[in-house]
Design goal:
Layout (H helix, E strand, L loop, with lengths): L6 E11 L7 E12 L4 E5 L6 H8 L7 E6 L2 E2 L5 H4 L8 E4 L3 H4 L6 H11 L5 H15 L15 H13 L5 E5 L7 H18 L2 E5 L3 H7 L2 E6 L2 E7 H6 L4 H8 L46 E4 L2 E3 L2 H6 L5
Parallel strand pairs: 3-8, 3-9, 6-7, 7-8
Antiparallel strand pairs: 1-2, 1-4, 4-5, 9-10, 10-12, 11-12
Length: 324
C-alpha cells in the first residue's frame, strides 16, 4: 500500500442557511480533515445527524462545500462545482453505493441498463464494450444473467443491492463510498452483502469510505476509523486500536453500546445546537461525563494518543488515554 494519500480532505466545511434566522448557519461539516490511502478502508461512525452522509456526498462531489479542499490523486476537486465535476475525467474514479438501492435505481431501467449507464456516460464505452463490462461486473457481484433483464420492482432487496454495487463498479473506480449500503436489508441479507463488499475491496484493491451505524461491522471490515460528532472528527486511528482502547469519551460511549462490551455508558445532557456553535467551546461538553471549565473556553484539537490514534479531548492531551 502506498504511503501517499489517494484522498486528502483539508479543513472541509459545509454550512446551510437557517430559514427564518437571518445570517444563521447550520454547521453540517465543520473544518474537517482526514486522509485515505490507496486500497485502504476507512469507517465513518457517529450518531444520526452528525454529518456522516453529508460528508460522503461532499467527497463524492454530489454537493459543493462552503470551504476547504478535497484533494484526490493530487487534484483539488473542491475547486470544481459539482455540476462541472459530472463531466470531469476523475468522475469515474469516485463512485458511491447509496443507502437504499431501490430508491437509487431508475424504475424504467432493467438491471442491465442500470449497470450499463455509467459505462456509457463515464467510461465512453460503445454498446459491445458496455455489454461485456455489465456481464463482467454482474458475475463479480453474484448476479445471475437471467436477472439482468428484470426491472427494479422485480428484484429482491439483496438483488437490488448487488445491482447498485455493480453499477458503482462498472466504470472501474479507485474510491468507493458506501453510505449505509445494507441499512434497508434484512439482517441475513446484510451479512452476505457485507462479505461481498469486503471481498471485492480486497480483490480489486479499492479504497473505501464506509459510513455505518453498525460499529461491529466497521470494526471487522475497515482498517481505519473516524468518529464524528456534530460535524467534527473527535477521534481517528486504526480500527482495532480505537475499538479496543477508545480515547475520547464519546467514542467510549459508542463502543460500550456494542453487545458483549460490558457496562454501557449512557450519555446525559442536551445535544449542543449545530447552528452557529461557539468556536471556543467543545461541542461534546454538554453531554461529557468528564467535562471541565476548560471545555467551555477552549475547543480541543485532534492530538496524538498512541501511534496513529488521535482524539480531540483536553484530558487526552494532558493525561494520555482517558481511564475507563
Amino acid at each position: 500500500m502506498s504511503d501517499t494519500p489517494l484522498l486528502s480532505v483539508e479543513r472541509l466545511s459545509l454550512y446551510f442557511p437557517v430559514a427564518g434566522r437571518r445570517g444563521a448557519q447550520l454547521h453540517a461539516v465543520d473544518d474537517l480533515s482526514l486522509s485515505l490511502l490507496p486500497g485502504q478502508s476507512l469507517g465513518l461512525v457517529g450518531e444520526s445527524g452528525c454529518g456522516k452522509s453529508t460528508l460522503a456526498r461532499l467527497l463524492a462531489r454530489l454537493i459543493d462545500p462552503s470551504a476547504g479542499r478535497i484533494v484526490f490523486d493530487g487534484q483539488d476537486l473542491a475547486a470544481l462545482p459539482a455540476r462541472g465535476f459530472a463531466r470531469h475525467p476523475l468522475r469515474s474514479a469516485i463512485q458511491m453505493v447509496f443507502q437504499d438501492a431501490g430508491d437509487s435505481l431508475n424504475p424504467r431501467f432493467t438491471a442491465r441498463e442500470a449497470i450499463a449507464e455509467p459505462c456509457f456516460l463515464l467510461a465512453g464505452m460503445d454498446r459491445t464494450a458496455a455489454d461485456r463490462r455489465v456481464d463482467e461486473v454482474a458475475e463479480q457481484v453474484g448476479l445471475p444473467p437471467a436477472l439482468l433483464s428484470r426491472f427494479a420492482h422485480q428484484l429482491s432487496g439483496g438483488q437490488k443491492a448487488r445491482v447498485g454495487i455493480a453499477r458503482a463498479l462498472a466504470a472501474r473506480p479507485r474510491l468507493l463510498i458506501l453510505d449505509e449500503p445494507t441499512a434497508a436489508l434484512d439482517v441475513s441479507v446484510q451479512a452476505v452483502v457485507l462479505q461481498l463488499l469486503d471481498r471485492l475491496r480486497r480483490e480489486l484493491g479499492l479504497a473505501t469510505l464506509f459510513v455505518s451505524h453498525d460499529l461491529n461491522v466497521v470494526r471487522l471490515l475497515t482498517d481505519q476509523v473516524a468518529v464524528m460528532y456534530l460535524g467534527k472528527i473527535v477521534e481517528t486511528g486504526p480500527s482495532a486500536q480505537v475499538f479496543e482502547r477508545p480515547a475520547h469519551p464519546y467514542t467510549r460511549a459508542l463502543v460500550s453500546a456494542i453487545p458483549g462490551r460490558g457496562t454501557r455508558l449512557r450519555l446525559t445532557g442536551e445535544i449542543s445546537s449545530p447552528i452557529d456553535p461557539p468556536p471556543q467551546v467543545c461541542r461534546f461538553q454538554s453531554r461529557c461525563p468528564d467535562s471541565t471549565e476548560r471545555c467551555l473556553r477552549e475547543a480541543p484539537l485532534l492530538r496524538r494518543v498512541d501511534g496513529l490514534q488521535r482524539a480531540a479531548c483536553h484530558l487526552v492531551a494532558t493525561a494520555g488515554v482517558l481511564a475507563g
